[in-house]
Specification:
Largest interface: A-B, 39 and 41 residues
Shape of chain A: globular
Low-confidence stretches of chain B: 31-42
Helix content of chain A: over 70%
Radius of gyration of chain A: 28 Å
Mean pLDDT of chain A: 88
CATH class of the largest domain in chain A: Mainly Alpha
Low-confidence stretches of chain A: 1-17
Mean pLDDT of chain B: 88
Strand order of the largest sheet of chain A: 1-2
Number of strands of chain B: 14
Distance between the termini of chain A: 55 Å
Strand content of chain B: 5-15%
Shape of chain B: globular
CATH superfamily of the largest domain in chain A: MetI-like
CATH topology of the largest domain in chain A: MetI-like fold
CATH class of the largest domain in chain B: Alpha Beta
Number of strands of chain A: 2
Strand order of the largest sheet of chain B: 2-1-3-13-6
Radius of gyration of chain B: 27 Å
Structural class of chain A: mainly alpha
CATH architecture of the largest domain in chain B: 3-Layer(aba) Sandwich
Structural class of chain B: alpha/beta
Number of domains of chain A: 2
Helix content of chain B: 40-55%
Largest sheet of chain A: 2 strands, antiparallel
Distance between the termini of chain B: 80 Å
CATH topology of the largest domain in chain B: D-Maltodextrin-Binding Protein, domain 2
Strand content of chain A: under 5%
Oligomer: heterodimer
CATH superfamily of the largest domain in chain B: Periplasmic binding protein-like II
Number of helices of chain A: 14
CATH architecture of the largest domain in chain A: Orthogonal Bundle
Chain lengths: ~325, ~450
């Protein structure tokens, strides 16, 4: 009723100045606008909780952390402005920052390519027409939906130097396995190997990508006499590059946020060998109550991730093939 | 017109739906607010005291029993406990304090009272003490209790149990090795020699039973007269000859297992069962002599009462300190903004024994923790328990000593002790020599101090 009344008022006002034809147009326009507005309001009501949640729990902390990175702040007392001191200390006087960055870079440079190779290989295998394919696909995908904490607990047992399954199997071949997570040299590699456990997620995306490769390209390659390896090299992989690129970018971003496994399994040790950036940031924030410094760490991480992502985007022109 | 009617109808139904939804939301919110007091009301006239602790598992029942005793003793207050996991305890307490909804009293394990006091998270407790209580506290409590929990002249945490470390040993292993269990070594060097006789190895040279292996730099530094803090001057003492001796001693002990001694020890320790209940490796016979804490006595009493074992203070090295140890302290603290500070303080006094040491004597054996004062131990109830577990007397003996070191009360306690732990790790693994490890420790801590000064933190 309210909307109808509004429309009527508009009609009365407009009849004084405009023609009858234009009055009808205005009425229709107002009705449409009102309907649109009503419809939008319902939409806004539905997305409202998300928008409020985003503003309060993501946008506000995100923007606050810029300000806090220039402050001394321990969450209890009000922030005190220290200018660029946090950043200056980070770059000049913090050996653990450098160590954390190196550990994380090494993890990213090793685990991401390994995950891509493993994911593509698995997808190729699971793209074959064999009996029980859906069972194999489910089996390889399952680990990726196991909660990280549960996987970490299982891997703690697997990596146990004395009673762990990995070393037990190695001992069958008269090989004495390393101390894995307790060994400075092996601990980072243990976590890199462990990251392959969740490869099922990207495998599904590669599988979807493989389904998207047009059959006529394979037919053309066959007519040209290409063998299976050449078809893989010259048809499948190039057509898969957009998906590989997507997983590469997501993998790099994810690896710079690597935290839970290291927090649960090694606490950054032994001898800082698994002191990942996010773990160091967490320690500075919550263990040493240095939120300002941790905010500076977070923004440096943001800059590093953005730079690498931009470089990847710039590189895609050279190796990513879009379109069929 | 028909369209208009339809639109009107739609609008009406939509408004009705929105009204209903809003009605439900308002009713739910009102319900929450109306229910809240009823839900949280404890008793009808008693004030609730919100208490957070981490005592789950086998500790939960004794904790509940202590809370029940307090509630029975009270007309004014009643405890409202919450068990929180140790992984989230610290951050939960901090966030609740910052958010203005802290608990009234918390039992903390993290050795960070000074750090948290400096951050403004804790309420000083000495303001609640009567002069008589303060006098008793300063004269009648164990030395380690009376010097712990202070920061810049205020007491921020009252010790509720502290861990000391003495030797547990198995007489049956001694006899098997042809040693006399009544003649325990008098120096640390002799103890290491005895340990060598008690080790057992399999055909591949792997350790199957550890005779004695000293570990933990912080625990052994005190025996060599070292430590990390000068209580008189307030200065850090990191790279000192005493600490170097202690580290050299620990490194030498690892070398006794050969060039890959550290790996052998890691493999041995990895194959052991958990420390809980009857599966504790000492009970399982994996160790002959082990330096461990007082709570093990009650664990042995409860889970393996027939096991023959003895305890004795760790013998000092030649020229070292007798009855020396490093204490890990549990604290009862009051977060800033606690809504029922008087109730919290009443509970603290009750449990620790500040109100009535004799009455509190019944609680300490439940957890097997070290009491606040020797006065607690004089109670008949406590003496009866001591007669059941005479091994506990070694801990009470050490507790009287002035040679017990505590976590330095500096505002960067956690960073400092993490660096000490890292130093221990470097030396144990043979990555750095003890000399270099101590130089690095001093350098890293000095760097952190400099960083804190530049950022305007107080020392």
């Amino acid at each position: 009723m309210g909307n109808l009344a509004t429309a009527t008022v508009v009609v009365r006002v407009t009849t004084c100045t405009e023609s009858r034809y234009s009055n009808v147009l205005v009425l229709r326009f107002e009705n449409t606008l009102s309907k649109q507005l009503r419809s939008n309001l319902v939409g806004y009501a539905f997305v409202g909780p998300w928008i409020i949640g985003f503003l309060v729990f993501t946008a506000f902390p995100f923007l606050s952390s810029i300000y806090l990175s220039f402050n001394r702040y321990n969450i209890v007392k009000p922030p005190v402005w220290v200018g660029l001191q946090n950043y200056s200390t980070l770059f000049h006087d913090d050996p653990q920052f450098r160590q954390a960055l190196l550990v994380t870079l090494r993890f990213a440079f090793c685990s991401v390519p390994m995950s891509i190779v493993a994911g593509v290989c698995l997808a190729l295998l699971l793209n074959q027409k064999v009996r029980g394919l859906s069972i194999y696909r489910t089996l390889f995908f399952l680990p990726s939906i196991v909660p990280t904490v549960a996987s970490a607990t299982i891997f703690l047992w697997l990596f146990n130097p004395e009673i762990g399954l990995i070393n037990q199997i190695l001992s069958l071949f008269h090989i004495q396995g390393p101390a894995w997570l307790l060994d400075t040299k092996w601990a980072p590699w243990s976590l890199i190997f462990m990251s392959l456990w969740g490869v099922g997620n990207s495998m599904v995306i590669y599988l979807a990508g493989l389904k998207d490769v047009p059959t006529y390209l394979y037919e053309a390659a066959l007519i040209d006499g290409a063998n299976s390896l050449q078809r893989l090299r010259h048809v499948t992989l190039p057509m898969l590059t957009p998906v590989i690129f997507f997983n590469l970018v997501m993998g790099v971003i994810g690896s710079f946020q690597y935290f839970t496994e290291a927090y649960m399994m090694t606490k950054g040790g032994p001898e800082d060998a698994t002191l990942y950036y996010a773990l160091y940031l967490f320690m500075r924030a919550w263990r040493y109550l240095d939120m300002g410094y941790a905010s500076a760490l977070a923004w440096v991480l943001f800059a590093v991730v953005m730079s690498i992502t931009l470089l990847l985007f710039r590189s895609q022109k050279k190796w990513v093939h879009y379109g069929s | 017109m028909a369209v208009d009617d339809e639109l009107t109808e739609q609008g009406r139904s939509r408004r009705a739906a929105l009204k209903s939804a809003a009605g439900v939301a308002v009713a739910a919110a009102a319900g929450v607010f109306l229910l809240e007091p009823a839900q949280f009301m404890i008793g009808k006239s008693r004030k609730k005291v919100r208490y957070w602790h981490e005592l789950g598992g086998e500790w939960l029942k004794p904790m509940e029993s202590i809370l029940e005793s307090f509630n029975r003793s009270q007309d004014t207050y009643e405890m409202d406990p919450l068990l929180i996991s140790d992984s989230e305890a610290d951050s939960k307490m901090m966030l609740s304090t910052v958010g203005g909804e802290p608990p009234d009293v918390v039992l903390i394990w993290t050795q960070a009272t000074s750090e948290w006091a400096d951050s403004g998270l804790l309420h000083p407790l000495d303001s609640f003490m009567t002069p008589a209580e303060m006098a008793w506290f300063k004269t009648r409590t164990y030395p380690v209790v009376r010097k712990s929990g202070w920061f810049k002249g205020n007491l921020y945490g009252l010790v509720m149990g502290f861990d000391l470390f003495v030797c547990f040993y198995r007489p049956d292993h001694f006899r098997q090795a042809g040693l006399d269990p009544d003649k325990f070594p008098e120096t640390l060097e002799e103890l290491v020699e005895v340990g060598d006789h008690l080790h057992k190895f399999n055909a591949s040279g792997d350790i199957t039973r550890m005779g004695f292996l000293p570990s933990h730099f912080d625990r052994f530094a005190a025996l060599f007269g070292g430590g990390f803090y000068n209580e008189n001057t307030g200065a850090l003492t990191l790279n000192t000859p005493e600490n170097l001796r202690a580290l050299n001693f620990l490194a030498d002990c690892r070398k006794r297992f050969g060039p890959d001694g550290f790996k052998k020890v890691i493999r041995f320790e990895s194959g052991l069962s958990s420390d809980d209940g009857a599966s504790w490796p000492f009970i399982q016979g994996n160790y002959s002599i082990l330096v461990d804490g007082e709570w093990r006595v009650e664990q042995l009493h409860r889970y393996k009462p027939d096991l023959e074992y003895r305890t004795i203070p760790v013998p000092p090295p030649k020229g070292g300190k007798k009855r020396a140890s490093f204490a890990m302290t549990n604290f009862l603290v009051m977060p800033k903004g606690a809504r029922c500070p008087d109730g919290a303080w009443e509970f603290i006094r009750f449990w620790t024994g500040l109100r009535n040491p004799a009455a509190a004597a019944q609680f300490y054996p439940l957890l097997g923790w070290m009491p606040l004062s020797p006065d607690v131990t004089h109670a008949p109830q406590y003496q009866a328990w001591l007669n059941e577990v005479p091994q506990y007397r070694s801990f009470l003996d050490v507790a009287e000593s002035d040679n017990i070191r505590i976590t330095p009360p500096v505002p960067f306690q956690l960073y400092l002790m993490d660096q000490v732990q890292r130093t221990d790790d470097y030396v144990s693994r043979g990555t750095l020599t003890p000399e270099k490890a101590l130089v690095r420790l001093e350098h890293d801590v000095a760097h952190e101090l400099e960083r804190r000064r530049r950022l305007g933190y107080a020392d």
